[in-house]
Design goal:
alpha+beta, Heat Shock Protein 90, 3 domains, five-stranded mixed β-sheet, two-stranded antiparallel ribbon, about 75% helix
Length: about 525
C-alpha cells in the first residue's frame, strides 16, 4: 500500500501522540491504583486496627472491672458495680464489633480481588469474636445474677470465675490475632504501595524515554522525507536561471518524488525546446545567408553571366583565328594558344561558379515521388566509377534489398549523392575505401556514406554545412549547404561524424513512401 507524504507524517506524529498518551494513561492508572491502596489502608485497615485496639482496651477494662466485682465483699457495692458493668461495656463492645463488621463489608466492594480472601477471613474472625463475646456475656450475666445475692456460693463463684477468665483470655487472643493480622496487612500493603511507586517511577521514566525516542525517530523520518524539498527548490532556482541540464533523479512513490520526476521531464522538455529553438535559429541564420547568396547570385547572373558568355565566345573565335594565323616563331604561337586556353578555362570555371550560385538562389521545390534509393545510389556510383578508379578508391556497397522506397525528387537526390561521393574521393588523396549502406531506421530510410579519408576536426565539422565555408583551395563552400537544403526540403536530416585521421561518415534519413 502506497501512503502519501502527508499520511506518513501524520502516522509518525500519531505514533508519538499515542506513545505519550500511553505513558500518561499508564501513569494515571498506576496513580489510581496507588490511591486505592492508600485509601484501603487509611480508610479501611487503619480504622479496623483502631477498632481492634479499642476492643482490646474495652475487653481488658471489662475483665478488670469483673475481677473487682468478684473481689468486692459488700453486697450493695457489688450490685452497684454489676449494674454499671451491664450498662457500660456490653453496648460499647457490641457497637465496636458491629462497626468493624460493617467496615469489612464496605471494604469488600471496592477492594482489589487479591484482598478479598483476607477480608473474608477477617470477617469470619470478627463473627467468631462476636459469637464468643455473646456467649461470654451470657455466662457473665449468670455470674452477675449469682453475685447479686447477699451470700453467694463461694465454690460456684470460683468455678464460674475460672470459666470467665478463660473466656476473657480467648476473647483477648481473638482481638490480638485480629489486631496483629491488620497490622501485618497494613505493613504489607504499605510495602507493596512503596514498591509499586518505585516500579511505577522507573516504568514512567523508561516509557518517557521510549516516547522521546519515538518522537525523535518520527522527526528524523519527517526530516528525511522532506529533505528533497530543499533540493527541489534549488533545482527550480537553476531552471529559473536557464540551466536545464540538472536532473534530480529521485526514486520513490511519494508526492515529492513524483513532482521531482515531473520537473526532470519539464527540464528535459525545456532543454529539447531550447535545442529546437537553437536549431531553428541556426536554420534561420542559414536561410538569411542563403537569401543573401540568392541576392548576390541574381546580381552575379545579371552582371557577370552575360559578359562571361561573350568573353568565352570571343576567346573561342580568337582561338579559331589563331589556328589560321601564321607566326614567325612557333614558340610564340604555342604561348599564345596556351594563354587563350587558360583564359577559356578560367571563363568556364567562372561560369560553373555562376551556375552554382544560381542553383543556390533558384533551387526548385522537390517533386516528391516514391523512389528506390538503392537504384539511385547504384546509378550515381556507376556514373562515378571511372573517376573513383582513377583515384584508387574502392567502393563497398551494402545496400539492403528490403530498404523501403522513399518520397524523394530523384534529380535533386542524385545531386546530393554525387556531391558526397566527390567529397569522399577528394578526402582520400592517396586512395581508400568508400562504404555506402542503406537500410531502415526509425520508421524511415537511412543512407550512410563512409570514407577512410583524412577526416576533419570538430571545429571544421561544425561549419561544413555553412554557406561559403570550404577547406578546398578552389571550393565555393556551397556543395554541402545546397545538399542540406535539399535534404531538409525532403523532410529529412543529414548529419556528419568525423575525426582527424579517422575518416568521415555522412548519414541521411528520409521519410519512407
Amino acid at each position: 500500500m502506497k501512503l502519501s507524504l502527508a499520511t506518513r507524517i501524520f502516522i509518525g506524529y500519531a505514533a508519538v501522540l499515542v506513545t505519550f498518551g500511553a505513558v500518561s494513561l499508564f501513569s494515571v492508572a498506576e496513580m489510581h491504583q496507588n490511591q486505592q491502596e492508600i485509601r484501603l489502608v487509611s480508610q479501611g485497615y487503619l480504622h479496623l486496627s483502631q477498632d481492634a485496639a479499642a476492643l482490646d482496651t474495652f475487653e481488658k477494662n471489662q475483665a478488670r472491672d469483673v475481677g473487682r466485682i468478684f473481689d468486692e465483699r459488700t453486697p450493695e457495692t457489688r450490685r452497684a458495680l454489676i449494674r454499671l458493668a451491664r450498662l457500660y461495656f456490653p453496648p460499647l463492645i457490641g457497637q465496636r464489633i458491629l462497626a468493624a463488621r460493617d467496615r469489612v463489608t464496605e471494604l469488600s466492594t471496592p477492594a482489589f480481588p487479591s484482598e478479598l480472601p483476607f477480608l473474608h477471613e477477617l470477617a469470619a474472625r470478627i463473627t467468631e469474636l462476636d459469637q464468643r463475646y455473646a456467649a461470654t456475656q451470657v455466662r457473665l450475666n449468670e455470674v452477675f445474677s449469682a453475685l447479686s445475692e447477699d451470700t453467694p456460693d463461694a465454690a460456684e463463684i470460683a468455678h464460674k470465675r475460672a470459666l470467665l477468665d478463660g473466656d476473657f483470655a480467648a476473647i483477648e487472643r481473638d482481638i490480638r490475632a485480629i489486631h496483629l493480622a491488620l497490622e501485618g496487612r497494613i505493613r504489607e500493603r504499605v510495602d507493596t504501595a512503596e514498591k509499586r511507586e518505585r516500579h511505577t517511577g522507573i516504568a514512567i521514566i523508561l516509557l518517557s524515554v521510549v516516547a522521546i525516542a519515538v518522537g525523535l525517530i518520527a522527526t528524523a523520518i519527517s526530516a528525511r522525507t522532506l529533505r528533497p524539498v530543499r533540493t527541489l527548490i534549488q533545482f527550480v532556482s537553476r531552471i529559473g536561471k536557464g540551466d536545464y541540464s540538472a536532473q534530480l533523479g529521485l526514486r520513490g512513490d511519494d508526492e515529492i518524488s513524483l513532482l521531482a520526476r515531473e520537473f526532470d521531464q519539464m527540464a528535459r522538455s525545456l532543454r529539447e525546446r531550447e535545442e529546437q529553438l537553437r536549431e531553428k535559429q541556426e536554420a534561420l541564420l542559414r536561410a538569411e545567408q542563403l537569401a543573401a547568396v540568392g541576392r548576390i547570385s541574381a546580381q552575379i547572373a545579371h552582371e557577370v553571366r552575360n559578359p562571361l558568355s561573350s568573353i568565352g565566345l570571343n576567346v573561342e573565335l580568337l582561338e579559331e583565328s589563331f589556328g589560321k594565323a601564321r607566326f614567325d616563331d612557333p614558340a610564340q604561337a604555342k604561348e599564345a594558344r596556351e594563354v587563350l586556353g587558360s583564359v577559356l578555362r578560367e571563363v568556364d570555371r567562372l561560369a560553373e561558379i555562376t551556375e552554382q550560385y544560381l542553383k543556390m538562389a533558384k533551387l526548385p521545390h522537390p517533386a516528391l515521388e516514391p523512389e528506390d534509393l538503392n537504384a539511385v545510389i547504384t546509378s550515381v556510383l556507376d556514373f562515378s566509377r571511372e573517376e573513383l578508379e582513377r583515384a584508387q578508391v574502392q567502393v563497398q556497397r551494402e545496400l539492403d534489398p528490403l530498404t523501403p522506397h522513399a518520397l524523394a525528387d530523384e534529380g535533386q537526390l542524385r545531386q546530393v549523392f554525387l556531391n558526397l561521393v566527390r567529397n569522399s574521393r577528394e578526402a582520400m588523396r592517396t586512395g581508400g575505401t568508400l562504404k555506402v549502406r542503406s537500410g531502415q531506421a526509425d520508421g524511415g530510410v537511412e543512407l550512410v556514406f563512409s570514407d577512410s579519408g583524412e577526416g576533419m576536426s570538430g571545429e571544421v565539422r561544425d561549419q561544413i554545412f555553412d554557406p561559403f565555408f570550404s577547406t578546398k583551395s578552389g571550393g565555393t563552400g556551397l556543395g554541402l549547404a545546397v545538399s542540406r537544403q535539399i535534404i531538409q526540403a525532403h523532410g529529412g536530416t543529414i548529419a556528419c561524424e568525423s575525426a582527424e585521421g579517422g575518416g568521415t561518415t555522412f548519414t541521411i534519413r528520409l521519410p519512407r513512401a
